[in-house]
């Protein structure tokens, strides 16, 4: 009797946990409709990319092109109903997958269509890299950075000399893929105003106006601005120098005692909230006696600081400090 009851309970458990019947026909039908919907979404994305490109070319507005792509995504559902693609049985994740296919195709083809070699709607972007002050004896030049994705067709310069004469030049040299330079070859000081025009491979152009001042060749000057000469200091005491020049400072370094090693320095942005480095004519430099690899030992040290400018002028200054 107990065995019959046990068998009955097992049969009831089997009935309770039995998996639902698998409708193979419905499964294949749903997957087929999903495949159709994904293909339609991808093709719709390609078509809208063409439309968005045409709108972008007409209006010149990037945002309007994006709006076309976003609004077109809302047409997917009614369009599939029109094409009699059954979507009512599709799950949320499958719908997201179709929208993802649409957006990926739209974005990929739109980016392809609005960029060279197919299309170039933007003019060159110019950035002036010419020093504001240039010293006689240095490489006097105009330096222009050009960002252009369809190639540079021509670069011309109109330079107004200090006396008012106009000098037209077009022999720019391509230094890198973005940087173009024009050697000036002038030998008179004064302000030189210039007008730059750059044209790309599609005929679009951009212009810019600026000036550079050519100054006399004068060596830099060095001034100790923190910690007096012949002072007793610790390895944690910073030493500050101010280096000035009438044009571009090219390098500052020091040697310690009888060592032949030149230890180059980088300028700091400010000192004591009063002296500011401009990266060109006036720069504050800091020496740390405890710098890694250059830690000063205890005792007296004789230091020679050297500064150079773009014209090759050098100036040296000697100082002594005692590490205690």
What would you say this structure looks like, in words?
- It contains five helices and 20 strands.
- With 324 residues, the protein is of the alpha+beta class.
- It has three domains: 22-113, no CATH class; 125-215, Sandwich (Immunoglobulin-like), CATH 2.60.40; 221-323, Sandwich (Immunoglobulin-like), CATH 2.60.40.10.
- It has a five-stranded mixed beta sheet, with no helix packed on it. The protein has a five-stranded mixed beta sheet with strand order 11-20-19-13-14, with no helix packed on it.
- Helix 2 runs parallel beside helix 5.
- The longest helix is centred in the first third of the chain and has 36 residues, at 24-59.
- The protein is elongated and about 95 Å long.
- The model has no long low-confidence stretch (mean pLDDT 86).
Using the coordinates shown, work out and report the CATH topology of the largest domain: Immunoglobulin-like
State the end-to-end distance: 103 Å
Overall geometry comes to elongated
The number of helical segments is 5
Which strand order does the major sheet show? 2-9-8-4-5
Provide the β-strand percentage band: 35-45%
| Unreliable stretches | none
Cα gyration radius (Å): 36 Å
State the secondary-structure class.
Answer: alpha+beta
Largest sheet: 5 strands, mixed
By oligomeric state, this entry counts as single chain
Tally the structural domains. 3
Mean pLDDT: 86
What fraction, in percent, of the residue positions are helical? 25-40%
Please report the first level of CATH classification, the CATH class of the largest domain.
Mainly Beta
The run of helices and strands is HHHHHEEEEEEEEEEEEEEEEEEEE
CATH architecture descriptor text of the largest domain: Sandwich
The total strand number stands at: 20
CATH superfamily of the largest domain: Immunoglobulins
